[in-house]
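Holo model, LLP. Inputs:
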Amino acid sequence: MGNTIKGQFPVSKFKNIETPFYYYDAELLRNTLTTIKEESGKYGYKVHYAIKANANHDVLALISSYGLGADCVSGNEVKAAIEAGFKPSDIVFAGVGKTDKEINFALDNDIFCFNVESVPELEVINDLATIKGKTAKVALRINPNIDAHTHQKITTGLNENKFGFSMNDIKFAADFIAKASNLELIGVHFHIGSQITDFSAYEDLCVRINELQDEFESQGITLKNINIGGGLGINYEHPNHFPMADFEGYFRLFSKNLKLREGQTLHCEPGRSVVAQCGSLITKVTYVKQGTNKKFVIVDAGMTDLIRPALYDAYHRIENITSDEQEETYDVVGPICESSDVFQKEVSLNETKRGDLLALRSAGAYGEIMASRYNLRDLPVGYLSDKI
Ligand code: LLP
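Output:
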């Protein structure tokens, strides 16, 4: 794959920043958020940004300034969301293993809704809410048994996995809530997987939700909120041509296929599609090493800074942003003592030498937030373009 078209980077400003670091293009993030607001606004849908994709404070503050809600999966995420300006009344809280401490924190802050994943969890939320004299609003996370046609490690909607209630257990859970003293059932929640680019999976989800709504109604239950989770995919191969996910098509699909009832609100929880394309991991070339049959570019970022290639065989486009020389073929690898610390094999880069800067693209989601200190390395810092 040629490297002729590259992203735009303020390389001169990078000279004084210690590498590796994450760079977030604030303009692209703003454009993305404007599009999300416009497209979801057409139908009155409510968007909760999935904090797990990127919890950099400046990124969160920018997102919250557009009036999005937040989707959290830990007490610390709820805290980070509130600190970054998200309104507690717009926060949903999911996760199979919410601890008492996390539930109490969320109750104290009067969040919008707990997305509940099991009956034991319902019991605990009810008990803790009772102690506080509060009513906890809950939605049942339902496992709709839909194949999202995505990577095995990030698919979540098939029947036997740890997430949510299976279709068979919903009635029992709804009855439990009806009898519980301090719970209010306000909706249902789904999430079928991540990096979904085949929209037929979302069509299947709509069919399943429509069936379920009929079933609930036949039992006299009307749900105020339908939450379809996250998962909208982005284009990792061509971030310069497709800097934004297909929000227009995504929201239109639901408006066409989902039979929402009077007064019902549709919620969604995009993470990757909000932040992935605005972020790049910027790394400096430490050595270019001539092997027997290939050339290795050894960079100062490793799997500790961006684990997706090592963990999921994920592809991130790599560009040499300081060289315009003839292209050559290299393996781009990190410094970590693990053979899986390879960003990409046989990548075409403009001729690369020690000191050059490479950008690993589409790294704004599940990049900085998944960094670790393995090998006692420093955590990478993330900078919004406005602030450098
Ligand atoms: N809602 C729920 C309940 C989720 O589990 C997730 C992601 C999202 C929303 C946001 O999904 P998104 O729009 O970002 O696809 N670390 C993996 C991705 C794991 C996603 C887990 N759940 C990766 O790097 O690809």
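Residues 26-276 form a domain with the TIM Barrel fold (CATH 3.20.20.10). Residues 50, 53, 71, 94, 154, 191, 194-195, 229-232, 269-273, 308, 312, 365-366 surround LLP (CB under 6 Å).
Archived with the compound record.
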